[in-house]
Amino acid sequence: IFPKPTPGASEAMSPRAAIPGEVRRAAASACSRSRLRSGSTVLLPSMLMFGVILASSGLLLMIEKGILAEVKPLPLHPAAGEVSRRVETHGGDLEREVLRDIRNRTIRSVCGQPAMPRSVWELPAGQRRTVLRHLLVLDGALESVDVKLKMDHKSDLVFLGDMTPDEINYRLKNYYKFVFVRNPAERLLSAYRNKFGEIKEYQQKYGVEIVRRYRKNGGKSAGDDVTFSEFLRYLLDEEVERMNEHWMPIYNLCQPCAVRYDFIGSYERLNEDANRVLEEVQAPSFIRFPERQSWYKPVTAETLHYYLCNTQRRLIKELLPKYILDFTLFAYPLPNITSEFCRQ
User: Fold this and answer.
1) Could you tell me the pTM of the whole model?
2) Helix H segments across the chain?
3) How many other C-beta atoms are found inside a 10 Å radius of the C-beta of residue 298?
């Protein structure tokens, strides 16, 4: 979340606000850290409403395809004065706008139901603590934008959960709030590969228990050999509100009904959407979204295909209901695990 810019704000910036390397009163929604777990009840719509949501999403997707089919190519020689104009209704721009519209409509449909929370104060205490401890607030100044460390592991970051109720209300009302989402299947696979393949802390804290629970004679495992199927079985048995933030559903982690986000970005368009956020908050020109670190190993379509198609379909189908709101609200397709797809 960022303080929302006001007309003429850029001209009225204080001298300190203009100093390179500092950003005043900046705040960012980054669902990235957890301090408390809770076993409180999860608010979910009825199955009937799920049917309405899915049908509506399908209709919107068909409309999208129709709209995109009608887009005409740009002229080879634009008229004078048109060269530098950004064409918002062409190609990727149109796709982003349609996706944003689908998400907004679906979220309004879900969150408009009587049982859904309208604010963070309507959430059960455990759910409220979870979301407030993941809404990042950089309330002050960044010493540098040359980010070399993993920001979510820094100890001096401020979250909404660190603030008083009045401070929380003020920021939720007046700040620019944004969140980034990711295809749920890719997100789970990425968490599995990173946490159990590279981080000893997760291997010891979660991996040892997962192997002990789901593998015969697995008591001697160091937790570094968890299979993807074992991980999914663990997720299936785990209560959503007790999950680690790296695999807790985004709906439960960031509560898009209780928090009205001004912008929902996509991991699949991370750089473009991050730049959009910087534009919206009128960030100084020297602020740039950091380059991807060289050690990062992205999940490719081929990698996802391999893992999904080598996992029991029954297990994937049983797990989907826990993440159905992430697929539905953010317009991600359900994973394709048909025999025909897996033969490719």
Assistant:
1) 0.74
2) 47-70, 91-111, 125-132, 165-174, 184-198, 200-202, 208-214, 228-237, 250-254, 270-280, 301-309, 313-329, 339-343
3) 9
For every one of its 344 residues, what pLDDT tens digit does the chain have, with 9 covering 90 and above?
A: 777 776 554 443 333 333 333 333 334 444 544 333 344 444 444 444 444 444 444 444 433 344 334 333 334 344 444 333 333 445 568 888 899 999 999 999 999 999 999 999 999 999 999 999 999 987 655 555 555 555 555 567 889 999 999 999 999 999 999 999 999 999 999 999 999 998 999 999 999 999 999 999 878 899 999 999 999 999 999 999 999 999 999 999 999 999 999 999 999 999 999 999 989 988 888 888 887 777 777 889 999 999 999 999 999 999 999 999 999 999 999 999 999 889 88
CA 268 to chain centroid, in Å, comes to 10
| CA max distance for the chain | 75
- Six token digits for residue 234: 């663990």
